[in-house]
Amino acid sequence: MLVMGILNITPDSFADGGRYNSFETAVQRAHEMITEGVDIIDIGGESTRPGADRVSEEEEQSRVIPVISELANTGVRISIDTMRASTARAAVAAGATLINDVSGGLADPEMLQTAAALKVPYIAMHWRGQSKDMNSLANYENVVREVISELQERISAAHDAGVTKENLIIDPGLGFAKDAHHNWEIIDHVGDLVSLGYPLLIGGSRKRFLGGDSPDGREAASIELTKRLSTSGIWGVRVHSVKPHKEALMV
User: Fold this and answer.
1) Residue 236: which CATH number?
2) Model pLDDT for residues 114-169, shown as the tens digit of each residue
3) Options 207, 228, 243, 246, the catalytic residue
4) How many CB atoms lie within 10 A of CB 227?
5) How many domains does the chain have?
6) Structural domain span for residue 13
């Protein structure tokens, strides 16, 4: 199971906004993750926390492209966390080797064809709407069945656009248009998602459903979640800290 390290170059991300919001601090944090054995660094320049405002295309790219270019020769795999096809193109040109799109191609009609043309792995997350609206969209009769059905729609759309099965990864989107009990229901039935036959990424790190008074206070629970998922057959976990999760998987 892979460990994807989160690098938010933003002032407003829910768990670490502002900590690495400069070229120097972001590059330093990336090298720390490399030392700790990270498998993939996921670099994003736009917060997708509930209620977050979108930033311009220019602002997003000014945050991430210089850092990706700086890290391109380190040998570590770099993922670009973006909903914009233009940012994905610029990031891959700078050295990124994966695209992580929390909208699963719904936010930008050019994204799926762009991912297909770039021929890099594409992560399609379950998504129902922008951050401003996501909390109001957490309405399900059967969350596992509905998330699977909506992911299957994105899988079909990706394949229709030319994304190959070998390059498609899926993510149920914990915390995105989902309440705490929805997230736990998905975790309890993660095997149903694995059985779809695509690599599965889980991103639950430091999210509110884990409890605790603050994101940092949820770190122990995040590590326990990684332990729980370690035998589930998923492809990877997306986490804020690398070393303790790598150690948990080794144990």
Assistant:
1) 3.20.20.20
2) 999 999 999 999 999 887 778 889 999 999 999 999 999 999 999 999 999 999 99
3) 207
4) 12
5) 1
6) 1-248
